[in-house]
Amino acid sequence: MGNEVDIVIKKYSDFLTDSWNSIKYILKIDEYIDNEINYLYDDWLQVNWELLVGSALCKKDDFIVEYGSPDYVFFNPIKINKNAQLYEPYCKPKENKVVDLFTNRLINDIEKLSFMKYVGFEDNCYLDRAPFNFILLEDEKSNLFIINKDDIIFKLRKVVR
User: Fold this and answer.
1) Would residue 16 be called left, alpha or beta, if left means φ above 0 and alpha means ψ between -120 and 50 degrees?
2) Rounded to 5 degrees, what are φ and ψ at 52?
3) Cβ(116)–Cβ(136) below 8 Å
4) Which end of the chain is least crowded, N or C, by CB within 10 Å?
5) Higher per-residue confidence, 12 vs 32
6) Are 146 and 100 in contact (CB under 8 A)?
7) What is the pTM of this model?
8) Which is higher by pLDDT, 46 or 12?
9) Residue 4's pLDDT band (boundaries 50, 70, 90)?
10) Is 2 helix (H, G, I), strand (E, B) or coil?
11) Three-class secondary structure of residue 82 per DSSP
């Protein structure tokens, strides 16, 4: 499944970018996503993550972790099937270095950071809008990092419970 993981997860980014004008129109998103629209947008992100990425990369009774934050998930599949395996994407550098675009510093141990979601990036700020060419990562202390999706390769690993 090696390269397939990277292709599928990056195709999800392409799907978000390609769908942006439609979802923006349907949900009436102007410049920024407000709280009222945020729930619908989060649900749309999550359901498409599960359908497009989860179904492509996981076996029938296994699942992929929620997209973005735990608030996005509709149900907890592990409560339904205690034998189900949960998988999470993680990033590996394509080359020996990956730079955090917030700080312009090299990121050490990128494999330890949690993939949160795809974002746009402009004027040193990440945005929930197209093009979704950047990745928001988080460490165990909730520090955020932004990287270019072209600088990494996605892999999948089992979540230890």
Assistant:
1) alpha
2) -85, -45
3) yes
4) C
5) 12
6) yes
7) 0.89
8) 12
9) very high
10) helix
11) coil
